[in-house]
Every structure is written in structure tokens, then in C-alpha cells.
Amino acid sequence: MNISTFDLNLLRVLDTLLRERNVSRAAERLALSQPAVSNALNRLRELLDDPLLVRAGRSMQPTPRALSLEAPIRAALAQIEQSLSGAEQFDPARSRQRFSVAMTDYVELLCMPRLLAQLAEEAPGISIALVQLGSQLPIDALDKGELDLVLGRVASLPSRFSRRQWLNGTLCLVSRRDHPLLTGAPDLQTFLRLRHLWVHGGQTRGMVDQWLAGQGLKRAIHYTTPNYLQAAHIAASTDLTVVLPIHLAEHFATLLPLALHPLPFDVGTFQLEIVSLGQRQRDAALQWLIERIGAIGQA
Description:
Elements: H1 9-20, H2 23-30, H3 34-48, E1 53-56, E2 59-62, H4 64-84, E3 98-103, H5 105-122, E4 127-132, H6 139-144, E5 149-152, E6 161-169, E7 171-176, H7 188-193, E8 195-199, H8 207-214, E9 220-225, H9 228-237, E10 241-245, H10 246-253, E11 258-261, E12 270-277, H11 284-298
Parallel strand pairs: 3-4, 3-5, 8-9, 8-10
Antiparallel strand pairs: 1-2, 5-12, 6-12, 7-10, 7-11
Helix pairs in contact: 1-2, 1-4, 2-3, 5-11
């Protein structure tokens, strides 16, 4: 294909159609007529020799060819927009930007109350949409612009992403205050006798279970949940014990009848990081938000 004869405005139409999956909504978003968007789609189909979007009920489903184009087209349009607006100054006090951020409920509790207080003072028009962070880094959502950043534990990461250390954490054992097996600091045998609750927190296997497996040991996990906030309440009212990040455990110990105990082995520390698409390092608004989040982790 000769790019010099390709109407690049068609890429903006395709990007919007892939977002909306509906010609009428895409036309409204683009401030174009529905026939104009339909005509643009027909031109794209002819140029790319692919149906691109096919009707399925009231919506349109992208073909494999369209899906393969979605991320690179969106990234290219974002890069062009950032380059053209590079000289503009970001004014947080006047911004009405909405950021989409992925994190676990644990990180939300550590970060968001302070961040929201700062936004209310410095950038009252900025809003945050939170997405629950799962076991896999949402790379596709970051690539497509559906997510602006991720705050959490990150292992391997493609080179096109930027990462910044946010917080170092340690773990401790949490139980109800009058737990019958925990009258003092537990040893390894006591720890293995306990009935455990595991919060997977977006991980496929936790640090504790990795350490135990390395010693040929295994603990008895009787309940698994993705929710840190509920875990503390369950531990406070049952004989189940839970290993939690110490920042979170200390917070809940002020609200619930909980006791905190050191682990009888050393699993080291873990790192929470801020992850965003590298090409957005020139996005002044996003970098402003990252700086505010970064300062909270270092405080």
C-alpha cells in the first residue's frame, strides 16, 4: 500500500468504530453524519481488503485483521496528538481529564484517599475510574488506551512500557486477638498448624507459598479470596489467619480486634510499581498524575 495516497483521516474513523462497535455512536463521537462514517468504513474495507467490522445483532464485531490493527493505530494516533500538543501547558486546576487506573483493593486503600484529597485541592475537575487488577498485567488495555496506568506488583514487562518504583512492602501474619494457637510469636511448626486464608491479590502464587514450596512444605489454605479488605474482617471473627502487607495490617489493627505477628521465616520484601505506556512520557497530564502518585509512595 502507498501511504502517500492513503487518507489518514480514515484511521481516526476506524479507531472510533473499534471503540464504539456501532456506526451511529461512532458518527456521534466524530461529529459526522452516519452516511459519512458508513462511507469511510466502505473505503477502509476496499483499501485493506477486509470486512473489518461485521454486524452481530445491534453491534459490530471486529475481524481478526481489525483487531491486529487496533493497538498500533491507536498508539500512532496518540503519538501524533501528543506531538502536536507538546507545546501546550497542562493546567491541573482547569483540567477535566478522566484517568483509568488498575490496582488491587489493598493498593487502593494505601493510595487513593491521599490522592483524592490532593486532587480535590489541586485538580478538582480530574476524575479517576478504578479497575480491579487481576493476575495478569492488562497489557492490551494499556496499549489500546483503555487504561492509563497500573499500580501494583509487576514481574516481566515488555520494553515499550515505563515502570517506576512506588513502594517497598513486607508481610506479617494476622489473626484475631485471642487466637488459641497464637499466644506469642509463632514458630514454623505453629504456622503450619494454622488454618490459613490466602488473598491472591492478583498473583498466581504468593511469596509465602513460594518459600514453603522451596523447603518442601505446604500450608493448609481453607479459603481464597481476591479481596484484602474482607480478609481482615474474616480473620477478626474466625480462627482463620491471613498473611497481609504490614501497611494494611497495621491499618486494620486500629479498626478491628486483630493481632499482628512476625512470620517465622524471611520471605524478603516486595515492590509495587507504577506502569504506563512508554510513549506517553510526553503526556503532561498523565506524568503529572504519576508524580502525585509517586510522592504518596515515598512519603
